[in-house]
Amino acid sequence: MCDIDLTFVDNCIDRIGKTPDKVLPILQAVQQNYGYLPQEALEKVCDITEITPASITGISTFYDQFRHQPAGKHIIKVCVGTACHVKGANLIYEAFRRYLGIADDNDTDPQKMFTVEKVACLGCCMLAPAVQIDDIIFGHLSNEHIPIVVKDFLEQETARQQKASTQDYADGKYFGEIRICLDSSCVASGSGKVYEALKTAVEQLGINVVVKSVGCPGMSFLAPIVEVVSANGTSFRYARIRPENAREIVLRHFKPRQIGRKIKNTASFMLDKILADRVGKPVTRYSIDVRDRPVTLFLEKQKHIATEHCGNINPIDLDEYLNNDGFKALEKCVKGMSSDDIISQIKLSGLRGRGGAGFQTSLKWTDVANNNAVKKYIVCNGDEGDPGAFMDRMLMESYPYRIIEGFTIAAYAIGAEEGHLYIRAEYPLAVKRITEAINKCRDKGFLGKNILGSDFCLDIKIVAGAGAFVCGEETALLASIEGKRGIPRLRPPYPSESGLWGKPTLINNVETYSLVPWIIRNGGKSFSALGSANSKGTKVFALAGKVSRGGLIEVPMGITIRQIVEEIGGGIGGDLAFKAVQIGGPSGGCVPASLSDTPVDYESLTAVGAIIGSGGLVVLDESDCMVDIARYFLEFTQYQSCGRCTFCRIGTRRMLDILERLCQGQGKPDDIDKLEELAIMIKQTSLCGLGKTAPNPVLSTIEYFRDEYLAHIEKKCPAGKCTALITYSVTDDCIGCTLCAQHCPVDAIPINPYSKHEIDTEKCIRCDTCRKICPENAIKVE
Amino acid sequence: MITLTIDNKTVQVPEGSTILDAANKLGIEIPSMCFLKDFAPSTSCMVCVVKVNDSDTLIPSCATLAAESMKVQSDIPHVIKARKTAIELLLSDHVGDCLGPCHVTCPAKMNIPLMIRQIAEGKFTDAIKTVKKDIPLPAVLGRICPAPCEKACRRSKADGPVSICLLKRFVADIDIESPESYLPEIAPSSGKHIAIIGAGPAGLSTAYYLAQKGHKCTVFDDHDKAGGMLRYGVDRQKLPHKVLDAEIALTMNSNIIFKNNTRIGSDISIEEVKKDFDAIFIATGTLDQEQAELLGLKLSSKGTVEINSETYQTENPKIFAGGNAISKTRLAVRSVAHGKEAANSIDLFLLNKLEPGAVVSEFNHRMKRLLEGEIETFMASADKTQRIEPSQVEVGFNSSEAKSDSHRCLHCDCRKVDSCKLKNAAQQFQAKSNQFDAPRKHFIQYYSHPDIIYEPGKCIDCGLCIQTAQKQKEGLGLTFIGRGFDVKVSVPFDKSIEQALKTAALSCAANCPTGALAPKHNDN
Q1: In whole angstroms, what is the distance from residue B70 CA to residue B12 CA?
Q2: Second-level CATH architecture of A538-626
């Protein structure tokens, strides 16, 4: 009866191992192979390993990554991170489901072609709202783009398969190609000139690549479109290209024979600007590694320590890292510094943990260093999961060696010889780069036995998470490494006393480790010279939302919110007013515009009800509903609760019930009091940080935007966001162009050329498509 | 040794002891649901939280180690409020009834489901004891009661309610005819003496329950025979006097004196009664203004004697009232209920314990209206027989009819009603079931295991059953499935509970703090 070939299971267990802690990698391998977790395969795993049925079932249902049912051929991941949320991600999600005809109780279309999922954050907030189909990201979407996106994806898919067989050229090597449409409408928009410019650039740079004229991709409103297929087959598409961009595009993807890398990289970052700063609504595909990068503008406000040499060094090139002071700090440590020396520099620097809580880093190090246990562990927390935060992903993808160096220095200082780097499941590129970097370090003697000729040995293992936000909590993360459900436990004992496998364990966040080499090289004092009284050094933030220039920024602590939003972010852009900044994601709070002179440091933000957290910074304008924002974050934490303690498991759910009620216009007069009372109780009584901070977004929005809560009780949404509380209508400005009627997904607007259109409120699903498409701004929302 | 204080009391405990251990040593009771000795603390229910060293956060005492000079507070309002909230949150996610809907609907709060199960098992003596705990006149009520309980019976949604009233009559009738009729135990004499004015259902009921507690009762009635409206206001066809006489005789005992043909207010003055007796219960039936004044009582605007609705106490602390004197509904079962509840208050009064809050009703969590498909879940485990009508209507059920009908009971009440830690804590903290209005989850029942029943809606996710199965080396065992609010305890690989728990089932049920896992067969 078993129609699944289980030989893979045998092979994978031979490769991975049979002990209970191997359960996550085994499940990941099984899912990778079968596309889901067939029960027969799991039973087989239990038969031939020490893993029990109870354990494998508990774990495979705890983590979001695992599917127990087959998925469609392609997975559409709709990003519902904060930046995408405020730009209508839910409407996009619903629109995909509608377009693909997915039934309410399912996530896959009847033809089993597409599975549609929500993901917490794709880490490309500047492209919001964004979706990822397999390994291609589509940005700046709106509902009417969805049919085009699906069609485009499928066409490319077919093209890619055909290409696979003809890829090999005569000399056996495929260098990639550049395609451009020379269709009449594209030529009209200037594609002819771009074509010439590309050919010139290729010739001048001496790159062995073909510039091809191809058929029109059918998106002429984006023309001229240039598609670049790189040597490894991934393709990039650029919209509305001008001839002066040609050289940059060529340089970005193809290695010139004579020109140094530095130029290439600089060009590449200028190109990012075109890609990301572009206003408009084209459907544009990006390869998976085209995500938000550090904002290099307004450098004088920024200070790059964790992101040192940003834009200049190739992430994975060890030589380049070495040429830029790489591993100098480690060498200094193992050749001349004692554990005490190192820790006293860290103490002098005033460095506090960058994972959220802001605990003094030197205290943790001291605790573990002073522990006399023979076996100690060191762990790096790379399970960044806040929606709207992707600093750690960027650090891991762009500066893997710096993290490894900082981590190794810490291991040396505390006396650990075994390290674990836990990386979030959603960051495959980070896993790939860190793995590669570790291997190179081992080859060159920066890791492994007798590092740099000393007695010090360290081996690092990579653990890929499996999709559970709560694993960012240190005790849950340790449980996850041990191959258990990621359930936090009561502290004390703290990991520094009893951590991984019950041994003293140092656990710090990615960014914390990445600051260490600079501190050692420049001295703790230099670091503490930056920042404010109690928050030293710099912090990396992901700036996103309603801001002209979003992206990753590294700024000295103590900079004000206003400086970040206006000077680095370039202000709100558009006609709407700046309303608030959400800082610290689901554990943080909303700081209103009136408090934007608040310095960004641990204490100041806590005082206004927010936290630095892991560093998400989402700018909101007056079209954002604060009750909806609170509901959004609580929905996230509620869903991510591990489910252990009553206050978090049921309490956050009851808070969400109330917030949903408010957004549905079914609020009750005492709902605000109930929310506050429950929120305070949950904060005081939850077992771990997730529960203790989950109510923050609600409390801070009640504090600063109470009038909006009161309005919702009166069944009004002042920002016009909560769909149950708003109606769409057509004003007299309507010119009868029928665009709204053509695009309405539910036929709520009858086609009536040259006459004022009407919206059937009963049928209307408030998807906002008509308002966005109307050329005359004749759709009113109230 | 470690020295710490809990609620300002100092205690010494060995290193490695938890705060809960230290509290136990001091005799300070800290409630807990998910904690069980010799099991790893799951720190899930958070009902055992305490405040330590003036920190704002509250921490679970079951898993927090006692430390030197620790200052623990377990009885301050902040802690009490948190515990109550934890319980109320658990209740907001709890699917099931503590008490059967019939039980709750019965004005006398008779444990109907228990009686029915005892009848089903042929334990008729146990059944009459169950009945008489709350209803002293079951043969009477079995003939005249309009049976509100049957309207609440869940089975009425399917194929008609269980014949509760006839079942009660059945056990009462065989008890009357038995040579060894059930007579309750009488406590040693308290030396107190109570005057009961009126020998109707309320007066007889009060006397019956007060006498059991060792109090002497004198029942005054202006008629020749006891029974009040039962004798003089009910159709004899419906309630033959033979039955009434026999059942009244069974309520009488050595502590009860019946003074017939005596009218208080004319034959004896109320002042005299007040002087001679420790307490007075007014069970005269409906009173007019004049009669009330003669008894020194005031009538409300509704024309009933004014009482404290919890204690039945009138303005005069010594005088209590019940039955039709305080109610216009003229329902015999309600009068019987008044009598029982007033007897309880009077007993507390005589012991000087009738303080505000002394009279508490039993906590009950209710599932409320059934959702679609749930009646089928209940029916799945019940006998499918149609409602039984007695072959001889005037005689009532015979023994086999009674057993057959009682097998139709859906067992809506919780199998762990007496041992459920959630119910006990809810009772202790006076928690409200509906503090958080939330959509209810579906009622699910797994009935296939030979020894236990699993109702996931009652699970509080403590995982003690998982640990129990693991300790007893079950091959398959149990596990948590999912995460967060939707986490549930279930069997790996969608296998059945029989496959999961081959030897540990009853231990799991015993260790389950609620009615989620319960033994299928037990004494009640």
Answers
A1: 11
A2: Roll (3.10)
